[in-house]
Amino acid sequence: MTGLEGLHARAAETLDITEPWVRRAFEAVPRHEFVPGTVWVVDNGAYRPLRREDDPDRWARMAYDPVQAIATQVDDGAPAPGGGDVPTSSISAPAAVVTMLAELDLRPGHRVLEIGAGTGYNAALLAERAGAGRVTTLEIDSDVADGARGALHRAGYGGVTVLEADGEQGWRSGAPYDRLVATASVASIPWAWVEQMVPGGLILAPFRTAFCSHGLARLTVSDGRAEGRFAGAVTFMTVRGQRARPRIDAVFSTEAWEESRESKTDLDVTALADPHAEFAVGLRLADVAHWPQDGDHWWCTRDSWAYATDGAVRQWGPRDLADETAEALTWWEGAGRPELFDFGLTVMADGHWVWLGDPSAAWPLPAA
Questions:
Q1: Which is catalytic among the residues 89, 92, 185, 304?
Q2: Are 216 and 228 in contact (CB under 8 A)?
Q3: 247 C-beta neighbours (distance < 10 Å), count
Q4: How far apart are CA 54 and CA 232, in angstroms?
Q5: 3-state DSSP assignment of residue 239
Q6: C-alpha angle with apex 353: 350 to 357, nearest 5 degrees?
Q7: How confident is the model at residue 1, as a pLDDT?
Q8: pTM above 0.90, yes or no
Q9: Are strands 135-139 and 161-164 parallel, antiparallel or unpaired?
Q10: What is the DSSP annotation of 264-332?
Q11: Backbone angles phi, psi at 120, to 5 degrees
């Protein structure tokens, strides 16, 4: 057994994959064949290239690390000479990959549309179950698509169709599909995806709000809608067409600080450290960006911002975002501190609705 084979076997055991077909697929597909020879690692605050030939042991350990994704592209393929800033393509962590595949309920012969080919690794796993000729994967970046196509051919999955296309539009020529799986997160489910599914088909997509980055929507398509619960907490890069979110530098200024309202609040910002609380508040305040910074907290929309530290709050604009967060947390507490899995999403042609427990009690999801 080679070093890579040993790492592969050890990763399979560490992950403790309970879905039989997912385990067989994970064991069958050589993940290292889909990891580019140059990947990107954080070094002194910037992404810098790590070449396989320079450190083959580290590269191999990264390839089979069960819980770490690997950045395979930064800054949309055009990093500055001093180092990259933002990862824009990756091979997802094995733990996230097998978690999603277990939720997909994929059957032999299903027609599958994948949104985001990345390195091609996930498409190879799908092909092990559905058949390579039944899998179509879309990739918006031409260089990434070429890399995925080449890796799939070399690994024996040349029957997978790799297309350079905007995944938000789906691919009507291959429709209808039994399963659609996205490997990039969305803040709204494109209606084209729903239209291209068979009745009873399943959409599985990482879902985010401006407030919260983790969620996995598992939606069944029927009766002119896609509806289902959130099945887990995963964080993925966002599809390129939905990257935009409110930015504090677009609304904050020295003048705005001087004009801001200072107050005390009952807001317990520590509650937001609970991922279930953060997710629930995000569903109530989907258009509000929030981030902690060295113990302080910032919020913003496109026309308002708030800042909290040591119980004191400053707020500016037509909305009181810290107060809205406190109200949402009070609602969550009053509802019995529900978990992410208790919430659901309904997608129709005219919008998105979220609900707790019962779709009949849904509220509209604000657009970020």
A1: 92
A2: no
A3: 11
A4: 37
A5: coil
A6: 150
A7: 54
A8: yes
A9: parallel
A10: E----GGGGGSHHHHHHHHHHSTT-EEEEETTEEEEE-SS-EEEEETTEEEEESSS-HHHHHHHHHHHH
A11: 95, -5
What does the H/E/C string look like for 89-155?
A: EEECCHHHHHHHHHHCCCCCCCCEEEECCCCCHHHHHHHHHHCHHHEEEEECCHHHHHHHHHHHHHC
Token couple for 112: 């599958």
Q: What are phi and psi of 278, to 5 degrees?
A: -60, -45
pLDDT in tens, 4-56: 999 999 999 999 899 999 999 999 999 999 999 999 999 999 999 999 999 99
Rg (CA), the chain: 22
Return the structure tokens found at 303: 């026309």
Amino acid of residue 326: A
Residue 291 structure tokens? 């981030």
CB of 92 closer than 8 Å to CB of 116: no
Asked if the bond preceding 176 is cis, omega within 30° of 0, the reply is yes
Query: In terms of Cα–Cα distance, which of 177, 145, 142, 141 is closest to 161?
Result: 145
Active-site annotation holds for 213? no
Single out the residue of 134, 130, 70 nearest to residue 96, CA to CA: 70
Beta bridge partners of 89: 73
Strand 112-115 vs strand 70-74: parallel, antiparallel, or unpaired? unpaired
Query: What is the spatial distance between Cα 71 and Cα 88, in angstroms, rounded to a whole number?
Result: 8
Q: Rounded to whole angstroms, what are the CA distances from 38 to 11, 116, 128, 150, 276?
A: 21, 20, 26, 15, 36
